[in-house]
Amino acid sequence: MRYLLMIAGEEPTEEQQIAGCGGWTDDLLARGMLVGGGGLHPPATATTVRVRGGDVLLSDGPFAETKEQIGGFVMIDCADLDEAVEIASRHPAAAYGTIEVRPMLG
């Protein structure tokens, strides 16, 4: 089953950025579990799109007004939710941010 891991937190420190995933990604690649993923530019570069009454409304920045923003995502293929949670718990960002684990449709 495929799961999307949404990695969120406040702006990472320079040390956290340099450390990156610390081998976490390499392990998933070796195990054949990594489907895709990537990091995102800072929230200030976001554009939010909404359609209301047929009008396309754009706003700069993220939709959510919160300190924690999604900084990256990973799609994994694993046996079940327990395995997905175990994988998410080993991501370095879990120590200073949050990782939402969500099953994919289809």
Automatic annotation (TrEMBL):
InterPro entries: Dimeric_a/b-barrel, YCII. SUPFAM superfamilies: Dimeric alpha+beta barrel. Gene3D superfamilies: Dimeric alpha+beta barrel (3.30.70.1060). Residues 1-103 form the YCII-related domain. It comes from the Bacteria. PANTHER family: BLL7171 PROTEIN, BLL7171 PROTEIN-RELATED. Belongs to the YciI family. This is YciI family protein. It comes from Amycolatopsis rhabdoformis. The lineage of its organism: Bacteria, Bacillati, Actinomycetota, Actinomycetes, Pseudonocardiales.
